[in-house]
Specification:
This is DUF6089 family protein. Residues 15-225 form the DUF6089 domain. It comes from Dyadobacter pollutisoli. This protein is mainly beta. 13% of the residues lie in helices and 49% in strands. It has helices at residues 3-26, 90-95; strands spanning 29-41, 54-63, 69-83, 98-113, 126-141, 151-166, 169-180, 208-219. Strands 1-2-3-4-5-6-7-8 form an eight-stranded antiparallel beta barrel. The longest helix is centred in the N-terminal third of the chain and has 24 residues, at 3-26. It is elongated and about 65 Å long. It starts with a helix and ends in a 7-residue tail after the last strand.
Amino acid sequence: MSRRYLLPVLVAGICFFVTSGTTLFAQKIEIGAGLGGFNYKGDISPSVKARFFEPAGSLFFRYNPSQALSLRAEVAGGIIGADDKHSKDPFQQQRNRSFTTRIIEGSAVAEYNFLNFQERRFAVNWSPYVFGGIGYSKFNPNVQTSAYKTSSFTLPYGVGIKYQIRRPWNIGIEYGARKTFTDYLDNLGGEPTSTDKLQQGDPSLKDNYYYLRLSVSYTFYKIVCP
């Protein structure tokens, strides 16, 4: 082959291999956003109640090393709150406490897909999955002063379903719990600071919150070589 044609062939070959490698890598990258609600369980709401869902949203980055495994980093923010007046418990009605707290959290989780989601030869465009990982939350209760730490590590875990409506777009629904290591999300916890029973919570129970969201994401499938 003459030198006249050698350079274009080499450039084309390098472009092909670089693009192929980059494309393979790009097909594993996904970005998305979610919108839904936070819910809280603690001293003021001992069980999850639909009436206490508050707005929340998130942005996430997902890396898919295989069809079975996905790794996700996510930043979420929203509100949690509850009110004793909605309880049927006479003690809570008498206590008549309420709270609202803004939460910002960051988390890193692993997802296990039960089906070969986005597998090339035998494409499956949906899959249920479970997830678990670790996170960190910062909360801001609506009180004038606070003598306690307003942040906590969390353990996020839950279930979801993802569906590829059309390349490169995916949608999903997910419900997950956030196990915390704090009793102060509702500003009513820890060791009693008053002999008034109405001002005390249960120090043996930590506060938790939950995130239900719908999401949409974009998968990077192709990078065109110039």
